[in-house]
Amino acid sequence: MPKFAAGVVKFQQEVFPENAALFEKLAQGQSPEALFITCSDSRIETGMLTQSQPGDLFIVRNAGNIVPPHYKGAGATTAAIEYACVALNVPHIVVCGHTQCGAMKGAMNLDALDALPHVKEWLSYSQAAVEITNELGKDLDEHARNLLLLEQNVILQLAHLRTHPAVAVRLARGDLRLHGWVYDIADGEVYAFDDANNRFEPVSKRYAAEVAKHLALHTHDHPAL
Questions:
Q1: Helix H or strand E encompassing 199
Q2: According to the model, what pLDDT value does residue 85 have?
Q3: CA dihedral defined by 68, 72, 73, 74, rounded to 10 degrees?
Q4: How distant, in Å, are the alpha carbons of 43, 97, 142, 184 from that of 187?
Q5: Out of 5-9, 55-59, 202-206, 214-218, which region has the weakest mean confidence (pLDDT)?
Q6: What's the CA gap between 179 and 33, in Å, rounded?
Q7: Rounded to whole angstroms, how far apart are CA atoms 69 and 163?
Q8: CATH number for the domain that contains residue 188
Q9: Which segments of 24-129 are extended strands (E)?
Q10: Does 31 or 216 have the greater pLDDT score?
Q11: Looking at the domain assignment, is residue 199 inside a domain?
Q12: 16/154 Cα distance (integer angstroms)
């Protein structure tokens, strides 16, 4: 805890004063560009990964970056999705999985999680991804099977997202985009799902045109960069 307390002191003495204008703006409200659903794993740092600022992302974190299919009962993830779509009107939702995910390893062997009943129940929302992996990954080595599971879980959670009324309405209206990502912790690569071709490819390729447009605008605004 002293490490984190020291961090707060540094934030208050150095970071906050240097970004006073940003925090003054944020104090008036938020208008995030995306709902970012990712794993609770401590190795995932969303701001560092996306190079985003406070206020850019509305973040939901849970074990396995899971989105339960919509049902009548309230849940934290469901409520956050609804709020992001209706109140904040975010134009993008990202579901981001990651390599070496303990939740997905657990999902592959739910019978071993009897001592963690809540975790076991939660990970059942990934069961379809597990069964697809078992079927399509019969001849794959362990690394390839694990990657297939991560990808299939992201695709499954995107499907679950579409069952949420707030998401369905926005998709029908045409002002919301869904994105599926897998982050490789070891090499920093991020793969994005291309639903038209049913495959994952590097973010740099998947969003090449959009990244180029963004960088061109950014360079125009800041010619010294």
A1: strand 199-202
A2: 98
A3: 80
A4: 13, 15, 18, 6
A5: 214-218
A6: 13
A7: 6
A8: 3.40.1050.10
A9: 34-39, 57-62, 92-98
A10: 31
A11: yes
A12: 36
Is the pTM here over 0.85, yes or no? yes
Least confident of 17-21, 73-77, 182-186: 73-77
Q: What b-and-e string marks burial along 19-58, b requiring 16 or more CB atoms within 10 Å of the CB? A: eeeeeeeeeeeeebebbbbbbebeebebeebbebeeebbb
The tokens describing 41, both together, are 């794993």
96 is in an annotated binding site: no
**Residue 164 annotated as part of some ligand binding site:** no
Q: Which pLDDT does position 72 carry in this prediction?
A: 84
Containing structural domain, residue 125: 31-221
98 among the known binding-site residues?
A: yes
| Residue 223: per-residue pLDDT | 43
Whether 9 is covered by a domain: the verdict is: no
As given in the structure block, the two tokens for residue 27 are 């104090």
Name the token pair of 48.
């560092």
Terminal-to-terminal C-alpha distance of the chain: 38
Residue 63 φ then ψ, to 5°:
-65, 115
Is there a domain that residue 17 lies in? no
Cα gap 101→146, rounded to integer Å: 9
Q: Is residue 1 part of a domain?
A: no
How many domains does the chain contain in total? 1
